[in-house]
Amino acid sequence: MKRILRLRGISGPTKGRVWESDALLRAGRLATLEIVLDDTSVSRKHAEVALGADGLWYVRDNESTNGTYVNGARVGRGEHQVKARDVVQFGKVAMLAELTDASIEGPPSDQLVIAASTKGASDGEGLRHIAFDSNNMPRAGDQLLALLRAGHHLGHLEREDDLLDSILNDCVSVLDAQRGAIVLAEGDAAAGAEPKMRIRALSVGRGESKGRFHFSKRLTQRCFAKGESVLFCNVLDENDLTHSISDGQMTSVMCVLLRTPRKKLGVLHVDRGPGQPPFTKDDLLLADALAAHVSAGIECSQLLRKQRAMFMRTITMLAQMVELRDKYTGGHTQRVTKYALMIAEKLQLPGEEIELLELGTPLHDIGKIGISDEILQAPRRLTPAEFAVMQTHTTMGADYLKGVPELASILPIVLSHHERWDGTGYPERLSKDEIPLLARIVAVADAFDAMTSQRPYHDKKRGRSAEDGFEEVARQAGRQFDPECAAAFLAVKDQILASMAEPATETGVSLPTVPGLAVVVPPLSGVGRPPDSISDFGSALDIASLSQTRPFPG
Predict the structure, then answer these.
(1) Sheet bearing 264-272, strands edge to edge
(2) What is the helix (H) or strand (E) element at residue 20, kind and residue range?
(3) Which alpha helices (H) appear in 326-372, and where do they start and end?
(4) Is the separation of the CB atoms in 369 and 386 below 8 Å?
(5) Contact 170, 206 (CB under 8 A)
(6) Which residues of the chain have pLDDT under 70?
(7) What are phi and psi of 17, to 5 degrees?
């Protein structure tokens, strides 16, 4: 039996029009063709769709100017198979392919609360509900394109929060919802543990304010516990109406289960208000199909987040390995990382830069692993020769990390955090903007912690007060430190002080500050001058005399 092909317009002037054939459909601007398209993006004899000898339909592009596409992929030379529910595009004119013998499910039941079970549902069923409504009619072009965008988000957005926001915004838009929320389960629900439901994304529809946000925790929990998507056509008829529903002026609510074959992930919650028609069963099918479509991407992003957290714990462990060898630097990397992130937030760096800073700062002193205990744990100032060895921690650290391609982006922090704004730092004597920005940020945080920590080169081996440290950062702005980074650090002074008052969590070492205690640094034997500032002794590595021609940063 021949398979009848229908091409149904889903965009522009052709929307809703249908062309049908059991053998051949030719498309273009010529009036003699089966599909006449009066559109400037379409060529005179643009393309043809023909039934092959094997009983399958194929599209062939006739060397058109703007190309022929199937599901967004341009058709090259030769034939490309067209299957049911494929989107065929001639230039900018999109059509949906239909085959008469395609199996389409009937509409769901007429219950008020619809349980759209996803157990056993195939990917094909989900895709069908994306393209067709419950009456087997193709969805409007804007709906279809919005849903196709969800797949684009999965492939192009790396941050989990960005992915969730994009998915939810598209969903609220295509469903014409008053507002929406994505609530994900924390904890392993598959293992039988009671998960904690946490809001991960919020969105409001057109014309809605971004004030206090409302969503029904009770309906969300019911949806997740039952493992099925539910529709409340008129929640005002519910006897146990909750405050969130009444305060949020919800008249219709859908709770859609986010799930994969492996586990339940959470719930997509959308609602409509008094000025809107209630959601329909078809809206639920559409939302449920979208949830099935994007859930695998959400699960992958969660796995990547867990992998990154494990990676960060490994990095923290490596940093602590250094600190365990040096009793004077306990908690140093933890504090420097906190200070550096505060500076970055104040400078309003993009999220990608902040992530690199969070990744790289704990490893800024990783090169100390290669420094001998005799030098690293010396309870005194180092000799010039020993200090020269200590300086190599920057280049050794960079060499260690070069073997890990994933850490290439943080090498500038490890290599350059002892460079100075005035060009007298090490190891490469970079100056001003030659120094990578993230290294300049770490330089300020590192030097401040060195000034306010217990170090063998400090008077009585005890650090200066926090106030003295802030004054020294201000004095060295434009000399040792990038002026903008120094200003950002001073602008978050209150946050720094609050952080210093907290006990260390990683190493158990209290943060060392002694209010009012000043340090007098005498000239060092064999050196032509004392250091420019106490922060010239900067970090745990700068615990020796400095050369006359080359002062080193903190």
Answers:
(1) 196-204, 179-186, 264-272, 252-259, 230-232
(2) strand 18-21
(3) 332-346, 351-360
(4) no
(5) no
(6) 1-2, 100-159, 187-194, 206-213, 233-248, 308, 312, 316, 319-320, 322-330, 455-463, 503-554
(7) -80, 150
pLDDT of 488: 96
CB 297 within 8 A of CB 154: yes
**Per-residue pLDDT, 440:** 97
Amino acid present at 178: Q
pLDDT computed for residue 187 by the predictor: 67
Residue 548 is given by DSSP the state S
- The pLDDT value recorded for residue 529 is 29
| Cβ-contact 500, 362 below 8 angstroms | no
d(CA 180, CA 57): 41
**Inter-residue contact 115 to 225 (CB < 8 Å):** no
Residue 51: the pLDDT is: 92
Cα distance between residue 526 and residue 534, in whole Å: 18
- Please check whether residue 190 is in contact with residue 196, taking contact to mean a CB–CB distance below 8 angstroms: no
pLDDT at site 176? 84
- Cα angle 465, 519, 538; round to 5: 80
Which SS3 state, helix, strand or coil, does residue 312 take? helix
Closest CA relative to residue 441, chosen from 353, 314, 326: 353
Structure tokens at 231: 């529709």
Q: Would you call 51 helix, strand, or coil by DSSP?
A: strand
The CA-CA-CA angle for residues 307, 313, 319, to 5°, reads 140
Q: What is the pLDDT of residues 449-492, one digit of tens each?
A: 988 887 655 555 566 788 999 999 999 999 999 999 999 999 99
The side-by-side arrangement of strands in the sheet containing 18-21 is 18-21, 5-9, 93-99, 87-90, 68-70, 73-74
Cβ neighbours for 518, distance < 8 A, ≥ 6 positions apart: 459, 464, 465, 468
* pLDDT for res 354: 92
Query: DSSP code of 383?
Result: P
- Axis-axis angle for helices 483-491, 493-500 (nearest 10): 60
Per-residue b/e over 45-81, b at no fewer than 16 CB within 10 Å? bbbbbbbeeeeebbbebeebebbbbbeeeebeeebbe
Q: Taking a C-beta distance cutoff of 8 angstroms, is the pair 55, 3 a contact?
A: yes
In sequence order, the 6+-apart residues with CB closer than 8 A to the CB of 131 are 85, 96, 138, 139, 144
How many angstroms separate the Cα of 252 from the Cα of each of 115, 129, 210, 231, 424? 15, 21, 19, 8, 67
Are 369 and 391 within 8 A, CB to CB?
no
Q: Which helix (H) or strand (E) holds 93?
A: strand 93-99
Element (H, E) at 256: strand 252-259
**pLDDT value for 247:** 62
In angstroms, the Cα distances linking 450 to 119, 426, 491, 534, 540 are 59, 17, 19, 9, 6
| 3-state SS class at 163 | helix
Helix (H) or strand (E) holding 49: strand 47-51
pLDDT at position 512 is 34
CA distance linking residue 519 with residue 233, whole number of Å: 73
Q: How far is CA 364 from the centre of its chain?
A: 24
